[in-house]
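User: Please predict structures.

Assistant: First:
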Amino acid sequence: MGSRKPSGKKKRLASAQKQTKWAPFWLIPKVFGTGRKVHPARLTRKKRSWQRQKLRA
């Protein structure tokens, strides 16, 4: 893809990129307690990968 993109497409791509991030590290003890070891991706609502589904951005 070219380096020059329309601003609307850039916004849609940026918002879709945020969906792949894990939950913050401080949220784990807050939700599950301090003694529990849980991966931060467990709290992420939407898990999106570039291989799994294509964006119609």
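Second:
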Amino acid sequence: MIIYIGADHRGFALKEVLKGHLIDAGQEVVDMGNDILEEGDDYPVFATAVADAVSDNPFEDRGILICGSGVGVDIVANKFIDLRCALTASVEQIKAARTDDDVNVLALAADFIEEETAKNIATAFIETPYDGAENHQRRIDMITELEIGSVGEEAPEEETEPVTEEDEKVG
């Protein structure tokens, strides 16, 4: 498993902490940027880089994204097929997201989370397996169908009444 990590300026410091934490734990980590603290950089750039990398192997690799609120990077990652990103604030929440929803990208809010909590969440994200229960997989499959646009039946054709001579005169 490769863990791709990325953050904008608001998440940069936490990214550096988490990267060191994960490397110290023996994980293979690829930093997708930003490489320097650059005020005003744009989170979609780094979120896209991580999401694109994870989408190459979404069933094995994982991603961690960090911005100030966590929301922006979460939105970006969830635009990619086969990526399920979860913005989480607790170990319990990420364990449930991994077990039930097989999330493969973690979003963190640098402005609202303590470093130790973020480390514990990242560790749980890496170590918690997906349980593969039928009901969980069925729901994930439904999400995949939404992503590729094949959910539901085609809309029925609108029934129209034949136009009469009288209708033509009125219209």
